[in-house]
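Batch manifest, entry 17 of 40.
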Amino acid sequence: MIESTNIVGEINYEIAFTICTLVTDISEYQVMLESFEKAGFNSTNSEFLHIDNSTVNTYDAYSGGNLFISKARGKYIIICHQDVEILDTRDKLESCLDELNKIDNTWAICGNAGAVAPNYVVYHIAYPDNKLMSKGRFPIQVKSLDENFLLIRKEAMLSFSNDLKGFHMYGADICLQANTKGNTAYVIAFKLLHKSRGKPDQSFDISKKALQKKYSHQIRPRWIQTTITKFYISGTILGYMVGNPIFLLLIRLYYGLMKKIVKTGKF
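Output type: structure tokens
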């Protein structure tokens, strides 16, 4: 006889953090690891996973990110660049996360830089001159996050798109994925050093256009047919009205009346 296990209650995670990195420069990655260790991340509270891209890109950011998420044992999954160094402590990070848990239990992902709206970018980050750059009142909810440091709440069960590839725009992608699931994203005041400001190139433009094309298609107005009903989805009031049965009935009555007027010349 087959036995089934009844599962209830909260998930018990083995460790608090899984820190994941795509590595192209081993020596730079070692410096990153040392900074995490100094900040209080160790084998008792964390695990460190990496993908070796030092010889050839075995995984890109999307496929590699999904592999990290699937393998992670931590309650929180950090996906970060190899050229970052932690300047705050693990205790500070946990304090930021505790604050998020109190103010918004739907949060799924956070980072140190992102955008609230068009032309409204927020950040809390240091660059090579070691000067902290901070703009915003944290924590602050955002629509997208920079990829240098992404922290994902494992229980949110997020993933990166399977139909996108490359090494750009995956921060925006996973925020859009979170939004679709009913979750939120935040920038928090956790300080680290990022040794590069990023250099958008041709591959960035390709990734941007691919992301734009994917989500433009995803949010297109359309009819949804199930086995027992059909309905129309749209992001506009007019589009919603098009799928409203009462609106459709009024349209039919209107055209019926117009045909009668044309045919008889009377109301």
